[in-house]
Write a structure and sequence with these properties.
The structure is a single chain. By secondary structure, the protein is of the alpha/beta class. The protein has two domains: about 190 residues, Vaccinia Virus protein VP39 (Rossmann fold, 3-Layer(aba) Sandwich); about 55 residues, no CATH class. Helices cover about 40% and strands about 25% of the residues. It is built from ten helices and eight strands. Strands 1, 2, 3, 4, 5, 6, 7 and 8 form an eight-stranded mixed beta sheet that branches. The protein is globular and about 55 Å long.
């Protein structure tokens, strides 16, 4: 069973509207993250891999030089077309892109060596099922790698964090707490082999821009208000602050941090 149709529609709408601006950002700025995850899952020239919910090919494009073959799978035709153009421009011939649902991967049990995904689980109605699908399609000894934002276990902090995320992007479902990743890996027979946590400083204006929102939009103004209100006690766990203006002067810039987890596991 795949994702509910309403959530599919929200995702397709979001990433069709932002295919260009989000695609440009993700492909250009997440190279080092993709290479780190490739190293963590020990990608090698004999491997067959899937990058599910691949977006503009954030992982697939970087994994291609390391593996025999990789498939990028996504719900949104527009973002897949963006990924295909990038692959063609880079002359990559060992990857394919296909329309599909991460909740029901179109691969036989144990047919792949690697399954990876980046910044996708917080768009999923059932993130645990997606991790289960990743575990299902890799062989014994195969590797699963996930890169995503996470939140603390504190329910009140998580609620406000997710509220701001959903205002910014209606296709956001729920950000997982740190311990949920480990639990999902364990339940699906995945032995965690490597983890890494990283704080990423983001300018608020650019964060909203890649989600298709700008100054004056209702979503922009509401998300900004809530983020600013949380500065005093960091009640949404975004660690927001105003950065001093540069040498050219101007207003201080609202910035915050995304806390990101890299986690890799091996199927036992």
């Amino acid at each position: 069973m795949g994702a509910p149709q309403q959530q599919k529609d929200l995702v397709r709408d979001q990433f069709t509207r932002t295919a260009q601006v989000f695609g440009d950002f993700a492909v250009a700025s997440r190279v080092a993250e993709a290479e780190r995850l490739a190293s963590m899952v020990r990608a090698s020239p004999s491997d067959r891999a899937v990058d599910l919910a691949c977006g503009p090919g954030t992982l697939a494009l970087r994994f291609a030089p390391h593996v025999r073959w990789v498939c990028g799978l996504d719900l949104t035709p527009a973002i897949l077309e963006r990924a295909r153009r990038s692959a063609a421009q880079e002359g990559l011939r060992n990857l394919d892109f296909s329309l599909g649902d991460a909740h029901a991967l179109p691969f036989a049990d144990g047919s792949l060596d690697i399954a990876v995904t980046s910044y996708s689980l917080h768009h999923m109605p059932d993130a645990a099922r997606v991790i289960g699908e990743m575990a299902r399609v890799v062989r014994r000894g195969g590797r699963v790698g996930v890169l995503d934002i996470f939140v603390p276990a504190d329910a009140r902090v998580a609620e406000l964090n997710n509220r701001i995320e959903r205002i910014r992007d209606a296709s956001h479902t729920r950000t997982l707490a740190r311990g949920e990743f480990d639990a999902c890996f364990s339940r699906n027979g995945l032995r965690v082999t490597s983890t890494h946590v990283e704080a990423q400083l983001r300018p608020f204006d650019h964060w909203m821009l890649v989600a298709g929102s700008k100054t004056g939009d209702a979503a922009y103004e509401e998300a900004r208000r809530l983020l600013v209100d949380s500065i005093s006690d960091d009640s949404a766990w975004f660690h927001p602050r105003f950065a001093p203006a540069g040498d050219e002067g101007g207003e201080p810039e609202l910035v915050f941090e995304n806390t990101v987890l890299f986690i890799a596991g091996e199927k036992i």
